[in-house]
Design brief:
312 residues, alpha/beta, three-stranded antiparallel β-sheet, 11 helices, 19% strand, globular
């Protein structure tokens, strides 16, 4: 197949670490399932474990398709993460190392001295305010030179907080927020200023789904926006070829009624018939528009590398 996109393989370490069980839950597992978990003495929980040799074998099988791949990091354990980096390098691989929130700066400094592409991780559970303090320090004191230019390329694992994406000269970022936003019934729309959409400001997160509660404060559900704001939002939808969509609803007895094609249960006793697929009634439409938002945001970002100026 012709290769049309750049591929960055993540190890899945954060997802695995997030799957955890107590001692009682672990004891109930079958023997073969227990082998998938490892006890973390720091919190006393069993976390799902990824076999580094299987990860290495997977990379080698598909390496010709990959532009980049990450180290098998161990969340909040910089010593083990560095050990895995060396194991993978000894196997002939060149993984991107990863430095996590809260770890000693000496590990990042070591990566800065020896690598030209570094990942920052462990940021998902951290508040935006605390991340801003941490990232100001990293980019201001370590990653960038005296003129504010990044000395290496930085990847942000789980980083799509738009304010923070714009604030720092990332080489690349990733997260699942584009799809989670759509699944929770919302779309991202850039703010409109001086007659044009401003992608370098935090966007509106507009709930558009018919299934979302309508009794929300102003600026949450589409129905709560002012007529002028609605016009701006609708123009954005239309400019990318999207419509809100239209559905009809009626009451039926869930115990006896069989759904027809194009129907689904809205709630316990209400059937929704999709008349016109759109953002309000089709989650894949919301996914598509959110992908377009991030692609447009990328086009409006400065070309890397660009200067970081520490802000008060």
């Amino acid at each position: 197949m012709e290769k049309k996109v750049k591929l960055f393989l993540d190890s899945g370490a954060f997802s695995a670490w997030s799957i955890k069980k107590t001692q009682a839950e672990f004891d109930k597992l079958k023997l073969e399932n227990k082998e998938q978990y490892k006890l973390d003495e720091r919190d006393g929980l069993y976390h799902m474990n990824i076999d580094i040799q299987k990860y290495i074998a997977h990379i080698k099988e598909f390496e010709k398709y990959l532009d980049h791949y990450a180290v098998l990091d161990v969340i909040y354990d910089p010593v083990k993460t560095l050990e895995n980096q060396k194991i993978m390098e000894a196997a002939g691989l060149h993984p991107i190392p990863c430095f996590h929130y809260g770890e000693d700066d000496k590990y990042l400094q070591d990566y800065l001295d020896n690598y030209d592409y570094i990942g920052l991780g462990g940021m998902v559970p951290v508040s935006t305010a605390n991340l801003r303090v941490w990232l100001d320090h990293l980019f201001g004191d370590l990653i960038c030179d005296s003129d504010g230019m990044p000395k290496v390329k930085i990847h942000g694992f789980g980083m799509t907080v738009v304010d923070l994406m714009i604030r720092y000269p990332w080489g690349s970022c990733d997260s699942s927020s584009w799809v989670l936003t759509g699944r929770f019934g919302a779309v991202l729309v850039p703010k409109f200023r001086n007659g044009k959409y401003d992608y370098l400001k935090s966007p509106w997160r507009i709930i558009i789904s018919n299934r979302s509660p309508k009794k929300l404060r102003a600026g949450q559900h589409f129905d709560t926006f002012s007529p002028m704001e609605k016009e701006v939002i609708l123009n954005y939808f239309n400019s990318h070829g999207f419509v809100i969509g239209r559905s009809e609803y009626r009451k039926e007895d869930r115990k006896t009624y069989m759904l027809n094609k194009g129907e689904r249960w809205e709630d316990r006793d209400t059937v929704e018939t999709v008349i016109e697929p759109g953002l309000s009634n089709t989650n894949t439409k919301r996914d598509e528009l959110n992908i377009i938002y991030f692609l447009d945001l990328e086009d409006h970002m400065p070309e890397w590398p660009w200067r970081f100026k520490r802000k008060t």
